[in-house]
Design goal:
Layout (H helix, E strand, L loop, with lengths): L13 H13 L5 E5 L7 H14 L4 E5 L12 E5 L2 E6 L1 H7 L2 H11 L3
Parallel strand pairs: 1-2
Antiparallel strand pairs: 3-4
Amino acid sequence: MTKEFDVSGVNLSGGEVQKVAIGRVLYSDANVLILDEPSSALDPLAEYRLNKTMLELASDKTVIIISHRLSTTRMLDNIYMFEDGRIIEHGNHETLMSYNGKYAEMFNLQAEKYR
């Protein structure tokens, strides 16, 4: 319980709040989940674990993930790359990387930070 409700409660970090919110959504009866930047407050290891677990638990659901962190997209079946409100590329990670287009450019730019 948070301090908002009890003085002996705790304040959750941004990442903890995200994990709780995603957990609530995953265990709901919803067949379609829309997640906007679901791991933006997490460190890379926590992000990987969350994404892997989230996709395993939601395997029977349609999950739409909106993300600018392209490490999140690697495990997805279908990726749609938007520019100026239009789809400019779509496919899975390997397909989009083979196009050597905007997705590959952005992915490589982000990956360069870790090399």
